[in-house]
Amino acid sequence: MTKEITEIKKITNGVEGWLTDEEGETLYNLAKNCTGRGVIVEIGSWKGKSTIWLAKGSNAGNKTKIYAIDPHNGSPEHQKVFEKINTLESFKKNIKNAKVEDIVYPIVKTSEEAAASFDHSVELIFIDGNHEYDSVKKDFEIWFPKLINNGTIVFHDTTQYEGPKKVVKDNLYMSRNFRHIKFTETSMVYAKKVEQNSTMDQIENRCALYSKYLYTIKFYTKYWMDIIKKKIGKVLLHKK
What we know:
Elements: H1 3-12, H2 21-32, E1 39-43, H3 49-60, E2 66-69, H4 76-81, H5 88-97, E3 104-107, H6 111-116, E4 122-127, H7 133-143, E5 147-155, H8 162-173, E6 178-183, E7 189-193, H9 199-239
Parallel strand pairs: 1-2, 1-4, 2-3, 4-5
Antiparallel strand pairs: 5-7, 6-7
């Protein structure tokens, strides 16, 4: 682990969000490797945790601009829990504290609203907005044409949520337009866009999908086993 990664972890650990350090490092490396042929787009910024990882990676590379798109009023999941949400000021504060405000351009709109007037080519896009299937599918459909060939698309929460899980299966793993599909051992899937992948690419994509299935089974088995162990432990303690 480099000194820079350690420092970024210290910063982002103080920022509310649902991104693991492993996922953060993945975003860092993807942003660092951008060539500058297009910009970086983030769909769903919340309070800036993932934005900071992207920005730090970009600064370590070609300093590609990052457009952080979020209406900052929370997704439907958040709105069910909280009465009123406005994360914009927290986002700005966290971006400033991380010293990346010179490379991050907030767009306070929905994904669809932003896409309608967005005229930049995109080299890297991270989709982590509303997790409902129709919304994730819409995000993919409206931003896919803006992604350059050999650009990278990244989806978050593809293990726990059916929306992202189905979209990546149908539009990445089973598609002729993506290759080199990878996933972090948490919930992030990313792939390279191509005009048309080869037969070997398609075979590799299917193998990657089956590997993800196996990981998902392992993930949920551990999840439920941990719950069962805790419940058994409570019962045994109560009997004592």
